[in-house]
Specification:
Layout: H1 2-17, E1 39-43, E2 52-56, E3 83-86, E4 89-93, E5 98-103, E6 108-114, H2 124-130, E7 136-139, E8 143-146, E9 149-152, E10 156-158, E11 161-164, E12 172-177, E13 180-185, E14 196-200, E15 203-206, E16 209-210, H3 214-217, E17 223-231, E18 236-245, H4 247-255, E19 261-266, E20 275-277, E21 285-287, E22 294-300
Antiparallel strand pairs: 1-2, 3-4, 4-5, 5-18, 6-22, 7-20, 7-22, 8-9, 10-11, 10-14, 12-13, 12-14, 15-16, 15-19, 17-18, 17-19, 20-21
Length: 302
């Protein structure tokens, strides 16, 4: 009986303390922003013993889905790889058919082979093969036939020996003197002696731009081409186009970054176009010509 009395007293005490009622729990309210990806519910057909099937709504069909930006990497130009053939000289082949020799003006020994007899003409590769010291050779400027002899058209000089005189106010000439190279436009008849001089026509590039009047000369014909020029660092580049192009397209190509000429003159082209080289003890490489009377050769300094 005492136990019942204690329990009754405890009940009265709790009631007197006023313990509040617990709040009722509200039913959850669906969110206005659905969770992605969305799902749709499809009841199972009658008689099929599965509870439900689910299909995911693609993000592309969900108007509330955020678009993911697609980053397209910028095109990176392929590196240009020059191949040294001797100290101060290197070569390059391009995918569009160019063959190029680049060298420092004062780090090569120049030579010239000119044969007046038309029956003694040789290909560039044959001229190079016959020269025991040279490691590269390229065709010269234009030539013409007078009587039974070939003559070079315009300046041709090596190591102070003038093999053909300047043709005044015609085209331009590469002049190498005192270990420096320059393109001299419309050279004068009296020009001081030089280490190398070769004249051609027309001027393709002048002061970093297409030479004035060059596009008017271009008749649109496509032919193999040879040019010589200098870049911003004063290096000399001999460029041969074996696939063929118009004069204007050739000049524009010479301006591009992998060549980078700021001044250039056109040399003999067509069947005369040829540039060959070899490393010591190896076979020749490059592009050959038909038989021609003249080549310029390059050898290492002694």
């Amino acid at each position: 009986m005492v136990r019942m009395f204690v329990l009754a007293a405890l009940g009265l005490l709790l009631a007197a303390c006023g313990v509040p009622d617990l709040p009722s729990l509200a039913a959850p309210t669906p969110s206005s922003s659905p969770v992605h990806p969305l799902a749709t519910f499809t009841p199972a057909p009658a008689g099929v013993q599965i509870a439900a099937t689910w299909s995911v709504v693609p993000a592309a069909l969900d108007p509330t889905a955020r678009a993911t930006p697609v980053v397209t990497p910028a095109a990176t130009p392929l590196p240009t790889f020059w191949t040294p053939i001797f100290p101060g000289a290197e070569t390059l082949r391009t995918d569009d058919g160019l063959v190029i020799l680049r060298h420092a003006a004062g780090l090569v020994r120049y030579g010239v082979h000119f044969e007046h007899d038309p029956n003694a003409a040789r290909t560039v590769s044959q001229w190079l093969e016959a020269d025991e010291e040279a490691l590269a050779a390229v065709n010269c400027g234009f030539y013409w036939e007078k009587g039974d002899a070939y003559l070079h058209m315009g300046l041709l000089e090596v190591n102070g020996e003038r093999l053909a005189p300047v043709r005044p106010k015609w085209g331009a000439a590469l002049v190498v003197r005192d270990h420096r190279a320059a393109i001299v436009r419309q050279p004068k008849k009296r020009i001081p002696p030089m280490t190398l001089g070769v004249q051609g026509w027309p001027t393709l590039l002048w002061e970093g731009a297409i030479a004035s009047g060059m596009t008017e000369i271009d008749d649109g014909s496509i032919a193999r081409r040879t040019a010589v020029g200098v870049d911003a660092e004063g290096r000399v580049l001999w460029v041969v186009n074996g696939f063929g192009s118009t004069l204007t397209a050739f000049a524009q190509r010479l301006q591009e970054e992998d060549i980078g000429l700021i001044a250039a003159v056109n040399l003999d082209g067509g069947a005369s176009t040829g540039l060959r080289w070899r490393e010591e003890g190896s076979e020749q490489d490059g592009m050959d010509s038909l038989p021609i009377p003249c080549v310029i050769t390059f050898a290492p300094l002694e």
